[in-house]
Amino acid sequence: MTTEHLLKAENLSLGYKERTVIEGLELTVTPGKVTAIVGANACGKSTLLRSMSRLLSPRKGQVLLDGKEVHKTAAKELARTLGLLPQSPIAPEGITVTDLVGRGRHPHQGVFSRWSAQDDAAVASALEATHTVELADRAVDELSGGQRQRVWIAMALAQETDLLLLDEPTTFLDVQHQVEVLDLLTDLNRSRGTTVVMVLHDLNLAARYCDQLIAIADGKVHAAGDPADVLTEDMVRAVFGLDSKVITDPTSGGPLMLPIGRHHMVASAAGELPEHRS
Amino acid sequence: MSTTALRTPDATTLATVTLGRRRRNRRRLVVLSVLSVLIVVMVAVSLMVGRTFYPPMDVLRVIMGQEVQGASFTVGRLRLPRTVMAVLAGACFGLGGVTFQTMLRNPLASPDIIGISTGASTAAAFAIITLGLSGTGVSAFAIGAGLGVAMLVYLLAYKDGVSGIRLILIGIGIAAMMQSATSYVLSTAGQWDLQEALRWLTGSLNGMRWPSVVLVAVIMILFVPLLSVVAKDLNMLQLGDDTASALGVRVDRTRLLVVIAAVGLIAFATSATGPIAFLAFLAGPIAVRLVGPGSSMLLPAALVGALLVLIADFCGQYALGTRFPVGVVTGVLGAPYLIYLIIRTNRTGGAL
Amino acid sequence: MAWFLVCLGILALLVVASIAIGTRTVPVSSILSALGGSDETLDEAVIQVRIPRTVLAIIAGAALAVSGAVFQGVTRNPLADPGILGINMGASLAVVIGLAYFGMSNPNSQIWVAISGAALSAIFVYAVGSLGRGGPTPLKLALAGAATSAALISFVTAVILPRGDIAENVQSWQIGGVGGATFERIWQMLPFIGVGLAICFLSAKSLNSLALGDDVAAGLGEKVAVARGMASLGAVMLAGAATAICGPIGFVGLVVPHLCRLLVGPDHRWLLPFTALTGASLLLAADVVGRIIARPAEIEVGIVTAFIGAPFFIYIVRRQKVRAL
């Protein structure tokens, strides 16, 4: 199993130019678990993720990995413990799957060191874990969206980090591929003990696949904890400004959020509409 | 320090990975060897063939420092520095160009197009025509301006970090301004100066002497090692800034080092030969086609650059009736390829 | 409306300045008698040269600016400009080839050749720039234009290098200027400019629809391809005719529409006339400046506009969000 790494944010403030996105945020990622971050558009989910992986310096406060400030850790050293898959990574034209996955070995290599047997093993193991072995010699450009996303995850795996941060790993994917990717990440968490932190769009998928759900609103953590405790009708109203009904998911037993709009409501649901909507 | 328990992969998977990598490595090696052989052949041809033909033994004896009737002057004083410069300048332009193309993830973002060569040209035209300088003076101006323009473009493109796209566009704007400044300087020139300046502006190896060759060689000894130290990081930049930095690359520092090295090579080579048209632009993409994507393109591009200059200069001198400077040949050959490449790049939306 | 009068006033002032100011200072009395048609004294003769020059600057400025505004509208691209898109170089190469290989010295055929060259390179750059994902983004279009220009320049060089005899003649083709203007040449290009302007102004409404995106424009009942083709034809005629007479003048088509959009907003029915007026003023002003700053020599107007325009171009690039590029 992996050593457990503790990632936390203390009094964190982030922003671009005049705009402050995150202010005074406190957050602790449970080691060895899957954490999902949700929130409305432009609430700073991705910004938070970028800052946790050292891509964005905080205005105030700090991000700590095992008590050490992330932004003062050497880039390569951090990259051996913590990996990030950005939202839309760029694949060099014509590169093969194996070569792209091999790029994940960068933090483990010196300036002039040669490619080692250990590097090959890591790449092979990453391909197996993501079920992309049969794609190994294909060019990344030719792959479907779902396949490509698995290859990118393989690259992050070849990095062999104990913490893996992913920014919306399911965007632009069809629903079956979304489930496939999330299943894959869960497998990794279960088998390797990798701590997974991901920003997700879909509340219900987030609630189903994570152990810890974090909802961001107004630059702060609005609620964090077990999905069943966090995903409530009140939370959805406060964070997304949406009326909803939360029921028990018949397939997983977890919470399932059903949005309430202005149309297509059966009488019983409409009856529960709060004053201002009717 | 990573402790993630690696599940040992299947032997067959491992074999697939290892073999695939070996196969690509072999292709790279073969291409590099063929390119090197071709360069040696072209060097030999350029030294032997000309208005008078000298057999290989004469050429070798001249290189060894022996006195040979006639050959000592023609080969030793004229052809040798010219040929050596062709190799060095070709390598410089190839390296500088492919560095920019890799860094900015766009084959069109070569120094020819984003203003660096244009800046050097403007300064050289100014030095030749307005100040009446020649030789070292022109070189000094070209180097200063090349570095200056690169710095200016870099600074102007800076806004929450440097974005590649912004840098390319600002480079184009600066290049347009420089181009018109060059035109103005040319318009004030007399007939003779004009021809001279035009020749320089297209890039030419005419009248190459040892001091310029030595200068470029020294610059290469300085900057090529720097470039090879950051070569791996440079390659990672192809994945985008975020991914690269998540993999432990210090993006801003890498970019700065790489720009310094590439601009240094380009500026000094330009000062010696003039901006050989499209060379910096052509070498990288040709190298990628030959070697296949994935590995570092620095060495292949340097070899391709050297070979291109050797061939183009030879054609320009002897193959076309009138003597054309090397830049006209690369320009006319390069232009269609450039256009083909834009079409291809835009269609696939891809990078290099 | 008030702005319209202000612009008109500025233009009038500039016309006076353009006639009165130059490398040679002339007294008011000579100006008046010269305007009366006299060219007996040297001063009066100087003025007689400045009058067509002023007229040409007005016409060319208006043509280039409107052409830029229309290109920006058609491509929905803030960086579109006849110069940036490589259209000027297309005209240059066509004329250079005509001069070098076909001994073409008749100015009237030059116009045709220049317009065809401009049109060919416009079509080419646009086609290349709009290939692939996202259509003609500013980056793709600008790169296609810059690369095409670079390619064309190297062809121009290859044509003129072995021909010392025409190098001088061609050199004037590399920088735009209005110095050599005569009424005879102005008359030759006037029909093209007139037709081009008419097409552009008639396209104003379609341009407003196109600004919303092709799909929306089609939804509004616009024949997108036809509208775009017509507007582009007008813009190419304007740019080509202006280039045929003046040589390549860059950045007027870039700067002026942006300035005018700040004043009157994005409605092309207002924008285009304004752009024409302001473009005329800008080119006139640039020409006057070029005559003053390097006395006793003159700096061609194309160089002045490049030095005004390039910083402006950079400003626009910096203002844009990276994603929008």
Automatic annotation (TrEMBL), chain A:
Subcellular location: Cell membrane
Record bears the keyword Secreted: no
Biological processes annotated in GO: iron ion transport
Superkingdom of origin: Bacteria
Keyword Ion transport in record: yes
Keyword terms, alphabetized: ATP-binding, Cell membrane, Ion transport, Iron, Iron transport, Membrane, Nucleotide-binding, Transport
CC annotations in GO: plasma membrane
An example molecular function term from Gene Ontology annotations: ATP hydrolysis activity
Cross-referenced InterPro entries: AAA+_ATPase, ABC_transporter-like_ATP-bd, ABC_transporter-like_CS, P-loop_NTPase, Siderophore_ABC-ATPase
Domain ABC transporter: 7-243
Record membrane topology: Peripheral membrane protein
Classification via PANTHER family: IRON(3+)-HYDROXAMATE IMPORT ATP-BINDING PROTEIN FHUC
Listed name of the protein: ABC transporter ATP-binding protein
Source organism (scientific name): Kineosporia babensis
From TrEMBL, chain B:
Gene Ontology biological process terms from the UniProt entry: siderophore-iron import into cell
Keywords annotated in UniProt: Cell membrane, Membrane, Transmembrane, Transmembrane helix, Transport
Membrane topology: Multi-pass membrane protein
A GO CC annotation given for this chain: plasma membrane
Transmembrane segments: 29-49, 83-101, 113-133, 139-158, 167-190, 210-231, 256-284, 290-312, 324-343
GO MF entry, a single one: transmembrane transporter activity
Major subcellular location class: membrane
Compartments, as annotated in UniProt: Cell membrane
Similarity-based family: Belongs to the binding-protein-dependent transport system permease family. FecCD subfamily.
Name this polypeptide is given: Iron ABC transporter permease
Organism from which the protein derives: Kineosporia babensis
Lineage of origin: Bacteria, Bacillati, Actinomycetota, Actinomycetes, Kineosporiales
